[in-house]
Design a protein that fits this description.
heterodimer; A: about 120 residues; mainly beta; 4-stranded antiparallel sheet; 11 strands; about 0% helix; B: mainly beta; 6-stranded mixed sheet
Chain lengths: ~120, ~120
Amino acid sequence: GAVVSQHPSRVICKSGTSVKIECRSLDFQATTMFWYRQFPKQSLMLMATSNEGSKATYEQGVEKDKFLINHASLTLSTLTVTSAHPEDSSFYICSARQGRAEYEQYFGPGTRLTVT
Amino acid sequence: QQPVQSPQAVILREGEDAVINCSSSKALYSVHWYRQKHGEAPVFLMILLKGGEQKGHEKISASFNEKKQQSSLYLTASQLSYSGTYFCGTPKPRNAGGTSYGKLTFGQGTILTVHP
């Protein structure tokens, strides 16, 4: 149990275009989903938290107009990187949690975004 | 504030033991441990919720010293499959309403390499 999927696993896009990344909890309902980005050999940096049916909350320094998050249902959250630039190239990982804040998070396999 | 992990890297031979430490300058409510292999998403290992709590998972165990604001991960009789980067995650401080939504701040990671 507790499987989280992400799609696509890899994407290459041109500068100025937008890219959508999907995160799905396959066998449980996720009350909360989190979006992280990770640069090579670095730690995971939380970008935003999304709860189903409400607006996402963004961490300090993360542009909410650039990284649009939609938590459409208890099993699906999407991250859209708008007007992507090469500096947005990174490994984006979502995680999902069922229930209380103290419970574990289950991570998706990640999406490698390369902006040319 | 990001928890601090030590050591930054460990190299072992199969069968040897290792300890990874995670410490915080702020009060800890819980500690989460994850392992990430190169190019993959982090995999949940365990959560410690209470001071003094110890948990085990096969030959990987952890302890949580709430007063010292630190946790340690113990890997005994290491196997090749233990190689990877280990992260501890600690909850972000709660807001005025007492809710943290389970947001985690991850340490910088400890790279564990197990050789035959």
